[in-house]
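Please fill in the sequence for the structure shown.

STRUCTURE ENCODING:
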């Protein structure tokens, strides 16, 4: 396989790139086949079957690029996909060693631009990849295989790979450092607005992804590499989230002007105050054009524990694919409420619930496992 085309000097924003919204048409979805049993101790045997249900729904409308370590992984995946009715012609098996399968954070993060084309097609669209140098959420030691996934994707697809870097303010002679961000930590509307949390990327002591960088440097780097123009910071994520506040458990755009935000209504729940603070903050959000977004309340499921551990169960961890919106469900009365709210918001594709009680024992859910490749 040829080496990827690497661009270490140009900034994607200056070349006209932007990160598309998730609901924009996909070419494919990237997934990493599960193999690390330590992510789901005591429940790992059922996780590949959850993947089967995910892939069955996703592949109904797009290709799936599935990362496998070796032939044994591929054989297992094929067997499960056959049982659940997946069309294997829609699956591309990509051999790449991985530490884990959380492809939202480790996989290729795509950007897109339009440029002059041929006479028959005056506007041509191209996509490339930004490498944000995953480091195990600044928490785990086994990440070095995962951080190379964007390189493999760039080689496979023939895309340019932009290495995200940032230089500390006031240190012009210091070499730029690799810039770390995870796909689950950012949410964009595809028009210029990005939302994240202070807990995840601006906390001065816990899980610091980019030591020495302040808010101004982080915002400037996100603008340079993702083509966004406006960044808004919520406060915190729910309890049990070992990523320390990823936005995809809290707040999601459903179109360019509308977002859902989770709320905990039980004042005795430990999530009540941190999630209420996000509701206070969202009143100040203005989109890139200066307008207020519509904010729709999304409920939280009741507290979910396994082996005495609070899990980060959230309906906000849905994934928007071409053929459906797949939503985690938790055997909770609010499952139906959340599916109804999202069904009213997504009128162009069905909203499908996928049982995620076992999946969330890995401290993540459907969105955490997926990464879209825009058309």
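FILLED IN BY: designer on duty
SEQUENCE:
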């Amino acid at each position: 396989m040829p080496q990827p085309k690497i661009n270490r000097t140009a900034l994607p924003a200056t070349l006209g790139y932007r990160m598309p919204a998730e609901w924009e048409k996909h070419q494919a979805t990237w997934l990493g086949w599960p193999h690390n049993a330590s992510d789901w101790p005591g429940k790992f045997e059922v996780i590949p079957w959850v993947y089967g249900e995910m892939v069955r729904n996703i592949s109904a409308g797009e290709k799936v690029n599935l990362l496998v370590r070796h032939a044994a992984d591929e054989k297992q995946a094929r067997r499960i996909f056959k049982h659940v009715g997946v069309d294997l012609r829609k699956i591309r098996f990509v051999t790449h060693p991985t530490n884990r399968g959380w492809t939202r954070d480790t996989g290729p993060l795509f950007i897109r631009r339009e440029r002059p084309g041929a006479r028959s097609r005056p506007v041509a669209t191209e996509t490339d990849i930004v490498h944000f140098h995953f480091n195990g959420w600044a928490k785990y030691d086994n990440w070095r295989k995962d951080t190379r996934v964007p390189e493999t994707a760039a080689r496979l697809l023939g895309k340019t790979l932009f290495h995200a870097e940032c230089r500390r303010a006031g240190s012009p002679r210091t070499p730029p450092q690799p810039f770390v961000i995870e796909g689950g930590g950012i949410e964009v509307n595809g028009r210029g607005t990005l939302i994240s949390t202070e807990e995840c990327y601006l906390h001065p002591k816990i899980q610091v992804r980019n030591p020495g960088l302040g808010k101004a440097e982080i915002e400037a780097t996100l603008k340079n590499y993702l083509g966004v123009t406006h960044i808004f910071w919520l406060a915190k994520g729910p309890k049990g989230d070992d990523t320390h506040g990823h936005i995809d458990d809290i707040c999601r755009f459903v179109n360019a002007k509308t977002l859902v935000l989770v709320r905990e209504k039980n004042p005795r729940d430990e999530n009540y105050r941190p999630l209420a603070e996000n509701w206070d903050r969202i009143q100040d959000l203005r989109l890139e054009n200066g307008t207020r977004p519509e904010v729709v309340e999304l409920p939280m499921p009741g507290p979910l524990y396994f082996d005495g551990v609070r899990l980060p169960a959230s309906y906000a961890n849905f994934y928007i694919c071409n053929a459906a919106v797949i939503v985690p469900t938790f055997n909770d009365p609010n499952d139906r409420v959340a599916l109804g709210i999202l069904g009213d918001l997504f009128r162009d594709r069905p909203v499908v619930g996928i049982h995620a009680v076992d999946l969330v024992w890995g401290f993540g859910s459907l969105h955490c496992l997926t990464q879209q490749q825009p058309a």
